[in-house]
Protein: CRP/FNR family transcriptional regulator
Organism: Flavobacterium limnosediminis JC2902
Amino acid sequence: MIPEELLESHNALRKKYVKGDIIFREGDLPSQYFQIILGEVKMCNFNDDGREFTQGFFHPKQSFGEPPLFLNRVYPANAIAVSDCELFVLSKPLFLDLIQKNTSVSLSIIENLAQRLHYKSVMAAEISSQEPEHRLLKLIDYSIKFFKTEKETQGYRIDLTRQQMADLTGLRVETVIRAIKALEKKSEIKIINRKVYR
């Protein structure tokens, strides 16, 4: 996303979080830009029954939580460290100054936000109407494109756990496991050392 040197030259801080830490809460007013150096972060909501709905997972070199930062609106979801993490944290005024002075960074952020919006539109349609196998294939294929996954000798490795697949498709883990087995039988995917390959 934004080159590390550029973030550091604009006084971005490096901040560490441990697994389970809440980085920001739904309803908080944003005041900082976040970009992952190490680790994994998820954005999620909880309904009245405490059930979690995952909006997305974010990995090194990815940013998260920008739309409310631009709109000056509260966060619509929580950001939680999935693993121990190190993040770049840049205050909103310094972030806005950085993107105003760097057109290429602005374009990169626009492209990233457009990708996420497209993903949400595609997945919303899939979740509302399609069978589990179809939902999973759509998620797998989209994650290959979105994360620019490199093809290995066995195919494209999908670095999502069964739980993450369930969270992102609105399915139960048991349903995901059954659907993966069915997709393997149909030769749509391969399972090698418990990893899914497309």
Q: What stands out?
A: DSSP finds seven helices and twelve strands in the chain. The two ends are 26 Å apart (CA to CA).
